UniProtKB/TrEMBL annotation:
<feature type="domain" description="Carbohydrate kinase FGGY N-terminal">
    <location>
        <begin position="1"/>
        <end position="231"/>
    </location>
</feature>
<comment type="similarity">
    <text>Belongs to the FGGY kinase family.</text>
</comment>
<dbReference type="InterPro" id="IPR050406">
    <property type="entry name" value="FGGY_Carb_Kinase"/>
</dbReference>
<keyword id="KW-0119">Carbohydrate metabolism</keyword>
<dbReference type="InterPro" id="IPR043129">
    <property type="entry name" value="ATPase_NBD"/>
</dbReference>
<dbReference type="Pfam" id="PF02782">
    <property type="entry name" value="FGGY_C"/>
</dbReference>
<dbReference type="GO" id="GO:0016301">
    <property type="term" value="F:kinase activity"/>
</dbReference>
<keyword id="KW-0418">Kinase</keyword>
<dbReference type="InterPro" id="IPR018484">
    <property type="entry name" value="FGGY_N"/>
</dbReference>
<dbReference type="InterPro" id="IPR018485">
    <property type="entry name" value="FGGY_C"/>
</dbReference>
<dbReference type="Pfam" id="PF00370">
    <property type="entry name" value="FGGY_N"/>
</dbReference>
<protein>
    <submittedName>
        <fullName>Xylulokinase</fullName>
    </submittedName>
</protein>
<feature type="domain" description="Carbohydrate kinase FGGY C-terminal">
    <location>
        <begin position="247"/>
        <end position="426"/>
    </location>
</feature>
<dbReference type="InterPro" id="IPR000577">
    <property type="entry name" value="Carb_kinase_FGGY"/>
</dbReference>
<dbReference type="GO" id="GO:0042732">
    <property type="term" value="P:D-xylose metabolic process"/>
</dbReference>
<keyword id="KW-0808">Transferase</keyword>
<keyword id="KW-0859">Xylose metabolism</keyword>
Amino acid sequence: MYIGVDVGTSITKAVAFDETGAQVDSESVQTKLMHPAPGQTEQDVDEVLRSVTTVLNELVARVGQPEFAAITGQGDGLWLTDAEGRPSRAAVSWMDGRAGETVRSWTADGVEEALFRINGNIQFPGSPAAIMSYLDRHEPEALDRAATAGYCKDVVLQHLTGVRATDASDTTMPFGDLHGGYSAEALALTGLGHRADLLAPIHPRQPVGELRLPDTGLAKGTPIVSGPYDLPACAHGSGVVEPGDGMVIIGTTLACQVITDAPDTSGRPAGLTLATGVPGKWLRAMPAMVGTASLDWVLRTVGATTSAVPALLAESPAGANGVAVLPYFSPSGERAPFVDPGARGQITGLTLRTTHADLVRAVCEGIAYAARHCLDAAGLTGSLAVAGGGARSPEWLQIFADVLDRPLRLPRCPEVGARGVVVNAFGALGLEHDAAAWTGSERIVEPGRGVERHREGYRRYLEHLEAARPLWS
């Protein structure tokens, strides 16, 4: 039996799998986001670490001791810890917007493009380099106190094992060089060369340690494997391994990604290029800021809950009776397939006859159009897997299938991040497993009658986007 832990933005999950890849049991606990000022989003690191020990204790009490535990988690943001791995400041979330002006200045000065040419990654307000640059100017004492400026999963690893390390999935962005190391040029471009000692050592495969922390439920000495972070972990867990194959995670954000065997740092800067942990393969990722958070906002506005979505979608036809949504509701703007901290949402086509159902359908369609925009930019040519909380809605999945005009492959179970980090840990520990059995599909959703209507809707979505850009400045 094996345990995968996925430390998300608001939920920490531990999932137990047997030797066939079947999910045995799971445990989850919610964590809070803090908003100390407008546009700022942080997390209490101690609370996040407690959430990990809580889910491990509860799960192990029911299922027994695992062969190992593997850790994945949210990417980006900035997690500062001291030499003992204790938090030296609240974690700044990837959702944070305080570094928006930093990103705008990097774009204007050519830094953004120069960084993209090094490692194929754009910067956005919640990226580690932007946050670290902001703190270096406005809160330098926080960096002075820290021994490590790391990532969520790495903080958990050090807490459990004492190992200070990271892997190439997180470090590809922002300071990576696409060859498994840090780029001195990238550090210099961001003005952070003097903070290089805060970057943790990169392990070429995945960091591995032995459990030393008591009160986790796990036996002392249990192997703990860290990484990759959630985007590559979900790709592993969904069986996305061949160049051209992709996946979309319909979560708080809309994470679209495609496997490539040749990273491309030419063209217009857009998206991320992430190491997968498999030599010679990268993920061309377009993690848009839109997602279920945009739908949740509309549902709250109309006084409905997620349980009402199927009925509301049934009440409004494809095209939402002329209502259209640009779903850029994040206060930090957008990061894929374009970067604009000033990007904002719009709802058009409203009349006195517009219903709540029209609004809900329009935002569901708008998010699906954003997914197509991202996947087109990422170079999707093969099969497409779909995961995330939004994938639990058959009605919304049908909209995605129609907008994308291709079959959607649903992986074996919904916890693909935890599954993927366990699959990756087999390789890191040199253990055999049946990859096809672990990452097979549960079902396929085929495109339906809405394909033609949504082809026109997507064209109008792109026109709407271009018309809106001048209003964001």
